[in-house]
């Protein structure tokens, strides 16, 4: 198991929270909630070691379009980058509802 | 219209219960708009033991407890998420179920008729939390037995994981146990039996045999569960409502001691080794 | 003096030591021993599961809890409930040395899960009816077998002995499943307490009422037997003075430390229970 944290600048306020996914084979759990400061904070627990750069790439890409101050926590059980991106989008979608 | 077309229509309009997550399953059983989760993921009560063993936790520890209404009456549904660690019972997962059952009993003692439902998709004890998993399962058993006189405790095994280990005893203690044809109910999983007793005792890869021993249809045919329902979310929700409307059972299966001891005496262990043999003895028409 | 005889299980040794082999209730099957004796001034029912090499069910010949054992334990416990009135509820003592539940194809087919549930039901019903129920761990208290025979007791006491152990899975199987050696498993158990096979670490979970040291578990002498009788008597008295639930398992200082998460779950769920 490995843990990573990343921060991204944010200029919009988030209001709602969202939870998607499950810590099951090839999947991940995403918890998204508003953060009180002007930054997006991401914390990842992953079962697969040694993929820090891959996580950074996926998140860099996600935060080029997402500018809200949120706290995101990810519990990953070997999801592909595509699955990670999908769950992040779902979390954003759910937080809008 | 032919019967075949009617069946096809029904099949297509059916919403699978098995394909739902535990959270969605609890929603499917509660009256629309009444669902409210207790100790959800944002409460962040995850296992204190998994990370010590380098295993990624889940923020709800794999159990969803939701309150709401069933048929307009207060209810609590505890659903096990089998995708997380095989639905295994760790300290927190198990304690969420035991606590929900105890709080339901306290409601009844104050005159609030809370209806309890358990969704049992589990391999049993979570090995990484071994003795605390076993301890909370004993507490779940105690809680079911203490609550049962107040209100039927309804259990559902839908599949696909099935219900095994100490939680199979919890299933057997439910006042009304519903299964689908995709459910399996047994104390020891086939792989465990093959490992412990050898392939001559049981070939765990013989899926047809396994289903004939412990599958939902077999369990219903020999009267070891109360109801067989197709994998349809609406049908299962209706079966739950009907179980509460029907009220208390005449007797609990786990208390039919003389009947089952007499049945055991009548069984020749050399002959009763597969599903059809037991159906011939205990099948429809034969009463315990 | 030694009571030890080759091939006699711990459960049988202690069942006989405590009951003096008197007061035996009819035996059928021979793998479930039941005796009513006058113990500390009151009629007390003792129960043990012991090996029966001639059992009709081949997978339940070495002291496992199988179909016959589960249903028979249920019968003996239920018999005590049915024949005692309020105010005279006899204590029930489960002498525990059970290596496992019976692993077998017939067992699954015929419903071992229900047989074990029947025993759980009976023990819990006895406790709720006001019988003081005590489990005395003298050997293995494994997995589903312990659930069926002992884990519903008001009070659990154990001998502090290397062969007394509580666990959910045999050590060899657990090592295989967790991809560890047996030695690594022992090291792990020192930090991850619920994984431990050592009864002293089990005691740290706060579930035990007493851990009794300095007793010869294999060949108890007269002093050992008197000592355990006194401990069981004290556990019965404690059970009588407490409630009929299992709440006491979360109230000890040990539980507050190691089962803090369990206590937190109960506290916070109670807070969230009523509608906001």
From TrEMBL, chain A:
Q: Which Pfam families match?
A: ACP (PF06857)
Q: Please state where this protein is localized.
A: Cytoplasm
Q: According to its UniProt record, where is this protein mainly located?
A: cytoplasm
Q: Which InterPro entries match?
A: Mal_deCO2ase/Cit_lyase_ACP, Malonate_deCO2ase_dsu
Q: Which GO terms describe its cellular component?
A: cytoplasm
Report keywords, A-Z: Cytoplasm, Phosphoprotein
Please indicate which superkingdom the organism of origin belongs to. Answer: Bacteria
List of residues that carry O-(phosphoribosyl dephospho-coenzyme A)serine: 25
- Modified how: Covalently binds the prosthetic group of malonate decarboxylase.
Q: What protein does this entry describe?
A: Malonate decarboxylase acyl carrier protein
Automatic annotation (TrEMBL), chain B:
Q: Which InterPro entries match?
A: AcCoA_carboxyl_beta (IPR034733), ClpP/crotonase-like_dom_sf (IPR029045), COA_CT_N (IPR011762), Malonate_beta (IPR017556)
Top-rank taxon of the source lineage equals Bacteria
Could you tell me one molecular function GO term of this UniProt entry?
carboxy-lyase activity
Transmembrane intervals: 153-179
Domain (CoA carboxyltransferase N-terminal): residue spans on this chain: 1-198
Name its GO BP terms in alphabetical order: carbohydrate metabolic process; fatty acid biosynthetic process; malonyl-CoA biosynthetic process
Output the Pfam families linked to this UniProt entry: Carboxyl_trans
- Family matches, as Gene3D superfamilies: 2-enoyl-CoA Hydratase, Chain A, domain 1
What keywords would UniProt list here? Membrane, Transferase, Transmembrane, Transmembrane helix
Under what name is this protein listed?
A: Biotin-independent malonate decarboxylase subunit beta
Question: Which species is this UniProt entry from?
Answer: Telmatospirillum siberiense
Which taxonomic lineage is given here? Bacteria, Pseudomonadati, Pseudomonadota, Alphaproteobacteria, Rhodospirillales
Automatic annotation (TrEMBL), chain C:
Q: Which SUPFAM superfamilies match?
A: ClpP/crotonase (SSF52096)
Q: What Gene3D superfamilies has UniProt attached to this entry?
A: 2-enoyl-CoA Hydratase, Chain A, domain 1
Residues spanning the signal sequence: none
- In its UniProt record, which GO terms are filed under biological process? carbohydrate metabolic process
One Pfam family cited in the UniProt record for this chain: MdcE
**Highest taxon of the source?**
Bacteria
The name this protein goes by in its record: Biotin-independent malonate decarboxylase subunit gamma
Origin organism is: Telmatospirillum siberiense
Q: Provide the organism lineage as a comma list.
A: Bacteria, Pseudomonadati, Pseudomonadota, Alphaproteobacteria, Rhodospirillales
């Amino acid at each position: 198991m490995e843990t990573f944290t990343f921060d991204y600048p944010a200029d919009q306020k988030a209001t709602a929270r969202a939870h998607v996914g499950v810590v099951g084979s090839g999947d991940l759990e995403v918890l998204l909630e508003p953060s009180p400061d002007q930054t997006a904070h991401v914390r990842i627990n992953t079962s697969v070691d040694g993929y820090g750069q891959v996580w950074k790439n996926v998140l860099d890409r996600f935060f080029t379009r997402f500018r809200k101050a949120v706290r995101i926590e990810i519990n990953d059980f070997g999801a592909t980058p595509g699955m990670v991106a999908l769950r992040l989008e779902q979390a954003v979608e759910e937080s809008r509802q | 219209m032919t019967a075949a077309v009617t069946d096809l229509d029904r099949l297509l309009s059916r919403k699978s219960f098995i394909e739902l997550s535990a959270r969605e399953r609890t929603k499917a059983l509660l009256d629309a708009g009444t669902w409210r989760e207790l100790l959800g993921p944002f409460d962040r009560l995850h296992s204190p033991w998994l990370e010590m063993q380098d295993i990624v936790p889940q923020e709800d520890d794999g159990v969803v407890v939701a309150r709401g209404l069933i048929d307009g009456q207060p209810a609590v549904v505890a659903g096990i998420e089998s995708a997380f660690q095989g639905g295994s019972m760790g300290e927190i997962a198990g304690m969420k179920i035991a606590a929900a059952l105890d709080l339901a009993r306290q409601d009844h003692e104050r005159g609030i008729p809370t209806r309890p439902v358990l969704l049992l998709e589990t391999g049993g004890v979570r090995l990484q939390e071994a003795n605390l998993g076993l301890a909370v399962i004993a507490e779940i058993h105690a809680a079911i037995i203490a609550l049962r006189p107040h209100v039927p405790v309804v259990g559902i095994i839908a599949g696909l994981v099935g219900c095994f280990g100490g939680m199979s005893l919890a299933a057997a203690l439910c006042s009304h146990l519903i299964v689908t044809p995709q459910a399996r109910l047994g104390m020891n999983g086939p792989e465990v039996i093959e490992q412990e007793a050898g392939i001559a005792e049981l070939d765990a890869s013989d899926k047809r045999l396994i289903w004939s021993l412990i599958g939902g249809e077999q369990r219903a045919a020999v009267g070891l569960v109360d109801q067989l329902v197709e994998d349809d979310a609406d049908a299962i929700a209706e079966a739950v409502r009907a179980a509460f409307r029907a009220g208390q059972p005449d007797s609990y299966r786990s208390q039919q001691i003389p009947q089952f001891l007499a049945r055991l005496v009548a069984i020749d262990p050399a002959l009763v080794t597969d599903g059809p043999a037991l159906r011939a003895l205990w099948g429809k028409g034969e009463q315990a | 003096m030694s009571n030890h005889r080759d091939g006699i299980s711990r459960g049988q040794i202690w069942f006989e030591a405590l009951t003096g082999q008197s007061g035996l209730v009819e035996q059928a099957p021979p793998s479930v021993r039941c005796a009513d004796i006058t113990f500390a001034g009151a009629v007390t029912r003792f129960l043990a599961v012991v090996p029966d090499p001639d059992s009709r069910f081949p997978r339940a010949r070495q002291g496992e809890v199988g179909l016959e054992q589960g249903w028979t334990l249920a019968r003996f416990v239920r018999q005590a409930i049915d024949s005692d009135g309020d105010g005279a509820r006899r204590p029930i003592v489960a002498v525990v040395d059970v290596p496992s539940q019976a692993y077998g194809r017939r067992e699954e087919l015929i419903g071992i899960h229900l047989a074990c549930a029947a025993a759980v039901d009976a023990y819990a019903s006895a406790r709720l009816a006001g019988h003081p129920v005590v489990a005395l761990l003298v050997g293995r208290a494994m997995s589903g077998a312990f659930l069926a025979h002992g884990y519903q007791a008001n009070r659990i006491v154990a001998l502090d002995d290397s062969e007394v152990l509580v666990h959910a899975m045999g050590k060899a199987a657990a090592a295989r499943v967790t991809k560890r050696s047996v030695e690594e498993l022992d090291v792990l158990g020192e930090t991850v307490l619920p994984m431990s096979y050592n009864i002293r670490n089990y005691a740290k979970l706060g579930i035990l009422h007493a851990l009794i040291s300095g007793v010869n578990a294999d060949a108890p002498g007269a002093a050992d037997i008197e000592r355990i009788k006194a401990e069981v008597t004290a556990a019965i008295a404690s059970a009588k003075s407490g409630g009929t639930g299992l709440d006491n398992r979360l109230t000890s200082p040990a539980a507050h430390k190691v089962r803090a998460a369990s206590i937190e779950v109960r506290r916070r769920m109670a807070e969230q229970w009523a509608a906001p």
